[in-house]
Amino acid sequence: MLLYILGMIGIAAFAITGVISSGKRDMDLFSIVLLGMVTSLGGGTIRDVILRVDAVYWVQDTSYLWVAFLSSVFAFFGVRVIENRQQVFHYADSFGLALFTVVATERVLSLGFSPMIAITMGVITGVAGGMIRDLLSFRPPLVLGKEFYATPAFLGALLVVLLERNVPFHEYNSIYGALLIFILRLFAIHKGLYYPSWLLYKKRENHDY
């Protein structure tokens, strides 16, 4: 039940980021709501397609679809009264990243896949929705920047796997993993937590690729 609730909250959070990211594009209501829904449902859809589950999660349970739709509509009208939309965007994105990553990791483990697959699919699920959102709204994808983004997702998924192996089925394992991801993202946003320069790929000055 806890994972179900966390998944719903994650969908709502990512839907809000999709709507905010389209705010300067002069898009109509239908297009913005569609972007919010694609953002919130995209990562989990990719996960289920790759793992070839019987039915994609929002097809099997349309409650996810309704939450994505209603959250997008609410955000369309609600963000207009918010002054610092960029801050809300980053908080909601970090929250959605954390929740989607841990929920996906737990789900893949419950399906009987190996910890490595669970971690991989957790990270993919967490970052894929944001990548789709950024590409469709012509924003530089956050995951491709030098700021900590995919790494917190990886560490959170790893923590969930380790907890499940040592303290199996503890009800707060997912929350611990989500908190780790969210806190690391907050440090990245407010404290400038970046990858060290030696881990970054530098483009050559002579543009010789």
UniProtKB/TrEMBL annotation:
Family from the record: Belongs to the UPF0126 family.
Primary location: membrane
Annotated Pfam families: Gly_transporter (PF03458)
Lineage summary: Bacteria, Pseudomonadati, Pseudomonadota, Gammaproteobacteria, Lysobacterales
Compartments where found: Cell membrane
Keyword Repeat: no
Keywords: Cell membrane, Membrane, Transmembrane, Transmembrane helix
Start and end residues of each Glycine transporter domain: 5-77, 91-164
Signal peptide: none
Protein name, UniProt field: Trimeric intracellular cation channel family protein
